[in-house]
Every structure is written in C-alpha cells, then in structure tokens.
Amino acid sequence: MMNAIALLKELSHEKNLLIVEDDPNVLESLERLLSHFFNTIYKASSLGEAIDSCKQLRDASLPFIIISDIHLGQDNGIDLIRQIKQNNPSQKVIAISGTEDRDIFIESIRYGVDRFVLKPIDQTNLFNALITLLQQINYDCELEASQKLLKDSKEYALRLLDEQDQFLKNAIHEIHTPLSVIITNIDLLRMDGIDNEYLNAIEAGSRIIQNSYEDMTYLMKRDRVPDHHSTIDLVGFIRERVRYFTCIAEVNELSFSIRIGQPNLPLIRFNELKLSRLVDNTLSNAIKYSFRPSEINVTVGIRKDNLFFEVRNHGPLIQDKKKIFERFHRESEHKGGYGLGLSIVSQICDEENIDIEISSTAVRGTAFRYIFKNATLLQHNSSTMTLLNQNGAME
C-alpha cells in the first residue's frame, strides 16, 4: 500500500480530478481522501454540473480524471460517460457503482468507461485504478509530444528540401551567364593563338564549374528529361568526353589512357543526356581523387555480350562503397564539389538497369565499372544484326 501511495502521489502531481456524485457523504469522503494527491478537485452532483466542469477543465487545457457514480439521482451516469467520450475519446473515466448489474457494466463499457470501482469503495482498488489511468495519461502526453516533435521535424526537413531546391535553381540561374562569358572568351583567345599555363588553368576551372552546372541542371530537370534512347557508339562518346576533361587532368598533373577491349564493339541504345552525366561524373571523380602525378585508365570492353565502361585511378581507398552514392556525401572534406555527382550516377544506373562494380585496393587502385545490360546492340555474328545508314540511324 505504501508503494501505491508514493506512486499515486508522483503520478497525480499537477493533475486534476472531477468527482461526480449525488451522495454528499460519498462526495465528501472521496474529496478528503484524494485531496492528498491531486492538485485541484472539482465536484459535481448532477449531469449538467459535470458537463460544465468538463468544459471548464478542457478550455483551461488541464489534464484530469473523472470519477463518476453510475446513478446520479434522476440523471444517468452512463449518459455523462457517453457525452464525455463523444467530445473527447481519450478522457479517462472511473465509474462507481453500488450494483453488479451485468447490463450496466456492458452499457458502460460500450460507451468507453475505463475502470469500475464497486461500492463500498475499497481504497486499494480505487488507488490502483487511478494509478493505471494516470500512467496512461502520461503515456498519451509523451506520445503526443513525440508526434508533435516528429511532425515539426518533418516540416523542418521539407522546408530544408524546398530551400535546397531553391538554392539550386538560383545557383543555376546565377552561374549560366558568367560561365558562358568565360567559355566564349577562352575560345576567342585560343583563336588568337594564345596558349599558356594561365589560360589552361582558367579553362580547366571553367570546365569543372560547367560539370557542376550540368549536374545541378540535370537534378532540377530530371523529372522532365525525355525518355529518348538513341543509338550511341560508346567508344566514340567516351573518347570525346575524355578529350573534354584532358585539360582539367593536365592542370592537376594527371593523364588519361584509353584501352579498347576489341575492335568493332557493338553500339548501345541509351539516353544521351543520362550517359553524359554518368561518364562525366565518373571521370571528374577520378580526377578529384587521384594522387599527383598519376595516370587514369579508361577501358571499354565487352563481357557476356554486354558492353562495359571502366575508369581506374590511384588515390585514397574508398572507405564505404555504399555511402559514396548518397547525395551530398564526400569521401574527403578536403576535396571540392557538392557530393552530387555519384548520387546522380546511382540514380541513372537504377533507372537504366546498369550494374555497378567497385573495387578499391592499394595495389590496383580504385575502379568503377558500369555494365550496360539490356542496352547493347550486337552487330556481328547475330541473326538480329543492326545496320546503320549513312546518317547513323538504324534501318
């Protein structure tokens, strides 16, 4: 009993109680007993008074428990329970009854009474009922607080995503014009025969910015990218992209080597925009994470009738092969970039059914291999030979 009293005192702290009882002696007895525990005790002797008191407590946002007699003179305590539960299903109610009438119990339960205590009231049973309901109130309050915190966190996260997308839109808008001016003037200087290390550095820097610009543009427009697949010579496509990144590699004391596994490799059917993001980001990543000086090896070959494209470099080992594809993840905080490139690559590979194989060892370096399943067009030794006309279109 002493443990129950201590627990009841702890749980009833800053809680209120409404006693609904038409017998003055029982009402006074309950008030005297429970005043040692509850912050404030409200009393009512009729259904109307009880409804008014409930409204007053709800308006004041005060947590409270109701103890109500089933029989209130001319009023029915079950009607009180029904109205209370309709207004607030989570309101805790203890019903007091001087009878063990089965029909009364069933009707009370149907309307949501939480606990029963029979008259004459046993103090232990009453305390146990109060302790149970007070614990439920605390649990409900904690659950409500957690749900509010979760809702606030969700709204905050959505707001951050909106701000992030707005940042990308603004960055794309602000970068486009000055980047175009820089690239145009580099071309004009080249046409005038100017070629020095300073211009090379400017060109390399502008191409790094342009690659990031293309990433951001792709992210903003990817839902509107036409799902158009064209016939592409993967070898020629990669040679052209390697030429584009050569000036960036040279400024960083790096070089490219290209190895073609066999002559007359088949073509692929692929979305050209997606292929450019896949290839460009892989080459850019290899440059970013290569030791200086060193060589970056690019290989195009065929395995089990599927073309593959591989980029191998020597640099820091990859610590987490899964995390590198997460958006905004960077293996090194000392490297530039936004951590967008490999996230875009991963999305494209998922959409286009491309297998990614990654190896990273101290001896052989780090390799990213992309296997173009279901995209390869077998051009030789096949009854379904693909012919190209002079314009490069399939016949």
Short description:
The protein has 395 residues and is an alpha/beta fold. It has ten helices and 15 strands.
Protein model, in words:
- By secondary structure, the protein is of the alpha/beta class.
- It has helices at residues 2-11, 24-34, 47-59, 77-87, 102-110, 123-191, 197-221, 234-251, 272-288, 341-352; strands spanning 16-20, 40-44, 64-69, 71-72, 75-76, 92-97, 115-118, 230-232, 254-260, 267-270, 294-303, 306-313, 354-361, 365-372, 376-377.
- The chain has a 5-stranded parallel beta sheet, with helices on both faces.
- Helix 5 links the parallel strand 6 (92-97) and strand 7 (115-118).
- The longest helix has 69 residues, at 123-191.
- It is elongated.
- It starts with a helix and ends in an 18-residue tail after the last strand.
- Residues 380-395 have low confidence and may be disordered.
Topology of helices and strands:
Elements: H1 2-11, E1 16-20, H2 24-34, E2 40-44, H3 47-59, E3 64-69, E4 71-72, E5 75-76, H4 77-87, E6 92-97, H5 102-110, E7 115-118, H6 123-191, H7 197-221, E8 230-232, H8 234-251, E9 254-260, E10 267-270, H9 272-288, E11 294-303, E12 306-313, H10 341-352, E13 354-361, E14 365-372, E15 376-377
The 3D shape can be described as elongated
DSSP helical segment count: 10
Helix content: 40-55%
Largest sheet: 5 strands, parallel
In terms of quaternary structure, what is this? Answer: single chain
Report the sheet-strand fraction: 15-25%
Task: Please identify the structural class as seen in this structure.
Answer: alpha/beta
Helices and strands, in order, run as: HEHEHEEEHEHEHHEHEEHEEHEEE
What integer is the average pLDDT? 85
